[in-house]
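Lab intake sheet, docking and co-folding queue.

SAMPLE TYPE: protein with bound small molecule
LIGAND NAME: flavin mononucleotide
LIGAND FORMAT: SMILES
REQUESTED OUTPUT: full 3D complex as structure tokens
PRIORITY: normal
SUBMITTED BY: R.K., bench team

The fields below were copied directly from the construct record.
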Amino acid sequence: MEEKYELAMKPMTIGNLTLKNRIVMPPIATYQSTEDGKVTSKMLEYYGMRATGSNLAMIITEHSYIDIRGKARKNQLSISSDEDIEGLKRLVDTIHQGGAKAMAQLNHAGSAAPSDVTGERAVAPSSVILPVSPMMGDGTAPEELTVSQIAEIVEQFACAAKRAKAAGYDGVEIHSAHAYLLNQFYSPLTNHREDDYGGDIERRLRIHREIIQSVRSAVGKEFMLSLRLGGCDYAEGGNTIEDSVYASKALADAGVDMLNITGGMCRYTRQGHNEPGYFQDMSSAIKKAVSIPVMLTGGVKTLEDAETLLKNNAADLIGVGREILKNPYWLMEQMEK
Ligand SMILES: Cc1cc2nc3c(=O)[nH]c(=O)nc-3n(C[C@H](O)[C@H](O)[C@H](O)COP(=O)(O)O)c2cc1C
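RESULT FIELD (auto-filled):
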């Protein structure tokens, strides 16, 4: 068995974090939190089942909002207040007891935050309704962020990262994919700014560099920092694979330890594709261009799929979402095959 899945079962070290194999549960929003975003016993049970005896290397917990104005949905997990730390600690302990590493995914939904959830008008790089289907947000045009509001959001990411560290997480992941706020800055489809935060790709990535810097000063060099990049929009006028390679190099230079590759305005699926590793054209190009680990998610159904993608140098780590959502023991069962 071990030989059959030699690459998938091979341990790896990222910074000072040792992963026992290459299979990761990517963030999957379950929206099982309380009304104000606290961890519930239902969540402990859900994550516990997936960590215990499943042999997963790492679980990246579902996207959590760093500020109420960036809340994507009712019952989403919060990391926006120090009062959230206690519940998050219980969540991390549950995952660690099961033997997996735990990362927190930090998110601001931007224009995808519905006003009936946040109580406020949504904010975004530009006053553009998201070009995604099905619709995200409430369908109204968001308010364009001022430079001082951008600075506040940068600070909110750093405060959230600090809370994750206080809760015992092994690292944090900055969410810049699936049409949420940081993806809205990165994509030319949604960023029409003419100041330092819009225009060419360097400027569309300015907020990312500022967040990386401020998260680093909040949690230190040793704390694992991943960025989930919706690298390519696979849409006319959107970011291309070439852009994703450029962005990955810039983000690695800015100091992230790992890149978790997925879709941009196409979100986590890709029209006309459902083969294992349907973003592998992008992740393979990125892997060639950077020296930090690259994770690929999308369409993996068997451990053999993961092994093949690793063998083909499509990535260093493989995310398995919906299969583990359906079956908490997916990895153990696959290892027996
Ligand atoms: C119900 C559901 C919730 C999701 N929630 C998140 C999330 O919170 N953060 C995120 O980055 N991706 C999220 N995703 C995307 C997954 O992490 C993953 O990229 C996607 O399911 C494709 O991988 P798969 O084919 O292995 O399922 C979600 C996907 C699903 C189906």
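REVIEWER NOTE: The chain has one domain: 12-335.
SIGN-OFF: pending second check by T.M.
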